[in-house]
Specification:
Strand content: 25-35%
Shape: elongated
Mean pLDDT: 76
Order of helices and strands: EEEEEEEEEEEEEHEEHHEEEHH
Helix content: under 10%
Low-confidence stretches: 9-43, 177-181, 183-211, 213-217
Length: 300
């Protein structure tokens, strides 16, 4: 079945027009790390991998340490820190990846099934880096960790899936048949180079999620967003040229990688990382208790 896919323009003269999906974000190659672990907490890792397909959360230029626990992969979110997603295709076939952050597609901010979602293209053995929400055919706005209340999803009224990054991979069955340059309507709101202030949420949020926001009103009630838990905001504008192609994809996904992120306090409460301080030994304190100190009164 033909699916409409978004790809980036060429990064360098040696790459074809569909070589990578994000032009301004760089091009990387790298080997996959160990397979995904769904067990008790283990040693920290830096790559979430499934069937060789990998996703890294890169913060301040370095992959975030990952922890395998509770049948999931976790990373620590650093409040106000920008991050990007580095995604690797280990195979000899081109793939399309449906990529969502906080339950929203990173291309159009919609919440759909992975099959119905707009997707990014990755060349054989290639790696792409997605740094933000794609706002038009030329610009994206950076991901950054923030509170639930300040998140992009909350501003669109879709706060049911915060704290999760998901990538689902589909292999190509044929060659691309159509290339279009126009970005689909509706057009997102006016772009600027600063993060979206909380008080401007309603007037500045992209119109693309309006239909989904209307649907959410009839959905089951969820706890309101708070200021204690991590989510992803919509940050500064960066240049990122993309175009659309049609691909014939195998409807069966070949891999799915999911990463959860939380602030350190939440990771400690979940038992995923140790406390920053030793837990008090109540029995030892009580055993050392005395009624009086064997000394005179101290000088003032």
């Amino acid at each position: 079945m033909l699916k409409r896919i978004v790809v980036g323009l060429a990064v360098a003269a040696t790459l074809s027009v569909v070589a990578v999906c994000v032009a301004g974000y760089g091009f990387h190659r790298g080997a996959a790390a160990e397979g995904e672990i769904n067990s008790l907490p283990a040693e920290p890792d830096e790559v979430a991998v499934q069937n060789g397909f990998s996703v890294q959360v890169v913060v301040y230029g370095s992959p975030a340490t990952e922890y395998a626990a509770r049948g999931k992969r976790y990373i620590e979110a650093l409040e106000n820190a920008e991050y990007e997603l580095r995604i690797h295709n280990p195979g000899s076939s081109r793939v399309a990846v449906a990529l969502s952050v906080d339950g929203l597609n990173t291309i159009d901010a919609r919440h759909t099934s992975a099959w119905d979602a707009h997707k990014w293209v990755i060349e054989p053995y290639g790696t792409i880096t997605v740094r933000g929400w794609q706002m038009s055919s030329e610009n994206a706005r950076r991901f950054y960790f923030t509170t639930e209340r300040d998140s992009y999803a909350a501003k669109l009224g879709q706060a049911a899936n915060l704290g999760v990054i998901s990538a689902v991979f589909f292999r190509e069955r044929g060659q691309p048949v159509t290339v279009t340059q126009n970005w689909p309507k509706p057009v997102y709101g006016k772009e600027d180079d600063t993060r979206m202030p909380r008080e401007r949420a309603e007037q500045s949020a992209p119109q693309a999620g309006a239909a989904d926001a209307a649907k959410s009103k009839s959905a089951p009630a969820y706890p309101p967003p708070d200021d204690e838990s991590a989510a992803t905001g919509i940050g500064r504008s960066v240049r990122n040229d993309v175009q659309w192609v049609h691909m014939d994809l195998d409807p069966k996904a070949v891999s799915e990688v999911t990463i959860c992120y939380e602030y350190r306090a939440a990771l400690v409460r979940l038992g995923i990382i140790p406390r920053d301080y030793p837990k008090p030994n109540v029995i030892d304190r009580r055993e050392r208790a005395q009624g009086f100190e064997p000394k005179f009164c101290p000088q003032p």
